[in-house]
Specification:
This protein is 74% helix and 0% strand. The protein is an all-alpha fold. The radius of gyration is 18 Å and the shape is elongated. The two termini are 28 Å apart.
């Protein structure tokens, strides 16, 4: 496989966005919908995880809590 035959997800999405064909429009709309749902999911996950951290006395530092939240979010995103 050539180096030019490979693209990362960002490049692929930008390529799809740039296609001016009406046939590409349903894919663009679907990608926008899925992207919006993912953003909502991540936003809800972050706020639901931060609320218990604020409401109870926790012996962990803010750095430790932030690292834990990041690991949980990564795990949730990988599960999707």
């Amino acid at each position: 496989m050539r180096l030019t035959d490979v693209a990362d997800p960002e490049t692929l999405l930008r390529l799809i966005q740039s296609v001016p064909s009406p046939k590409a429009e349903p894919i663009k709309l679907w990608l926008a919908k899925v992207g919006y749902e993912r953003i909502q999911l991540i936003t809800c996950s972050v706020s639901s995880l931060q609320t218990p951290a604020r409401s109870c006395l926790n012996p962990y530092s803010k750095t430790t809590l932030a690292a834990r939240l990041c690991r949980v979010l990564v795990r949730e995103c990988e599960a999707l």
